[in-house]
Amino acid sequence: MAAEAFVALLNEQIAHEYAAHQQYVACAVYYDADTLPQLARFFYAQALEERDHAMMMVQYLIDADERVVIPGVTAPQVEFADIVEPVALALQQEKRVTQQINALAGCARSENDFTSEQFMQWFIKEQVEEVATMSDLLRVVERSKDDPMEIENFMAREFADEEDSDPTAPHAAGT
Ligand SMILES: [Fe+2]
Ligand SMILES: [Fe+2]
């Protein structure tokens, strides 16, 4: 059982997370086609994280015995003016998702759905990290946009051993 209003909002969020997945794949492909493999690798990995977020929400609704509707997804932006634009877009997207996650936690609280409110806590923490990562990356990409190899070296150095398993993360459906 979860509050009806929360279930409706979480189903919408599943669509936003899948859209974020598609957007990050599009960013990765843009960099891959431009032979910037480190930027590409970073965005391919981010894309998988977004898919995981969607599947964590799916699992939560299944566990709560609530209706899950696997959504269609808005088409991502695939054309970019320069190598800065995908990162700027990603930062905007993470800021928007942060608002959505906060709205979900707020909804759960106002419905006295404390289980759902607790479920959202991990996502609140995750969004702090994702916004911080994308703002750092935007600064680096803006600073070195005329020297992409500098950016590639930075990515290889700073994001080489991103740890993947977070034992506090909610369980993702199918894993
Ligand atoms: Fe996400
Ligand atoms: Fe994200």
Structural write-up:
- With 175 residues, this protein is mainly alpha-helical.
- 71% of the residues lie in helices and 0% in strands.
- The chain contains five helices and no strands.
- 31% of the residues are buried.
List the topology elements:
Blueprint: H1 4-33, H2 37-63, H3 85-110, H4 114-143, H5 148-158
Bound molecules: fe (ii) ion (2 copies).
One fe (ii) ion is lined by residues 20, 50, 94, 97, 130.
The termini sit apart by: 23 Å
Query: Which percent range fits the helix content?
Result: over 70%
Q: Enumerate the spans where pLDDT stays under 50 for 5 or more consecutive residues.
A: none
Order of helices and strands: HHHHH
Shape: elongated
Residue-averaged pLDDT: 96
* Strand residues, percent: under 5%
Core attributes:
binds fe (ii) ion, 175 residues, single chain
Characterize this entry briefly.
The chain is mainly α.
